[in-house]
Write a structure and sequence with these properties.
This protein is mainly alpha-helical. Helices cover about 70% and strands about 0% of the residues. The protein contains 12 helices and no strands.
Length: about 250
Amino acid sequence: MMNNLSAASLSRQESPSTVDPRRRAFDILSRVAADRGRVYRWLAIGFYPPDASLIAALNTGHMVDEIQASIAWLGKDQAKLQAGLSALQRFVDATLADLEADYARLFGKSVERVSARESAYRWRDASDVLSATETIAQALRQQYTQFNTVPMNGYEDHVAVELEFLAFLCEREAASWASGAQEAARQLRRQERVFLDDHLGRWLAEFCWRVCDRLPDTFYAALADLGDVWLSLEHGPGYLPATASNQ
């Protein structure tokens, strides 16, 4: 796990006369991008069908610990994510059977089913539901292809895939800052923002609210709460959190 250091702590460890301020700034930006990528990746892992590795990460506390370490750069805003992290900690004894049952109830063929796909929430933007679904899928495929990523066919707009794509962009951004490729890093940061504006930021709040409403006190409700607050911090004023959008 990468050590999260503030600009102040870096300056204490290294003499300003021997460290290039530009290099130091790039190092900080690289660490922040990598940390953001880890949060997105854990959210993506959580919303994919559960497996043994997810259970191990919950049982050992690794998932919560790594997310906690990855938000240190947020400063006081870390407090906004503590309720979600505390809720996740309650599932330290969860079993694979527990999560599989809840996942099936939420996202399988069930009366309690919650759609995990963008097209289920964005159809209101168009008069033709089928046309809107294909338009969204096509737009997402174009973005994924631009970065040589290929999701499983038919899953382009799944919440886990979109979260994983953002994790991938953050990781690419971190690598660009680390190598000193500042223009590439800035372009990736802009791409992340565009993706939030055009896709995940438009529907995640409603998805999270539905998950929490249908199966409260479950791992997926805790994950949805954490994801909702995280995206409100990432997206900023343009994002309407689940608690506000459903009052």
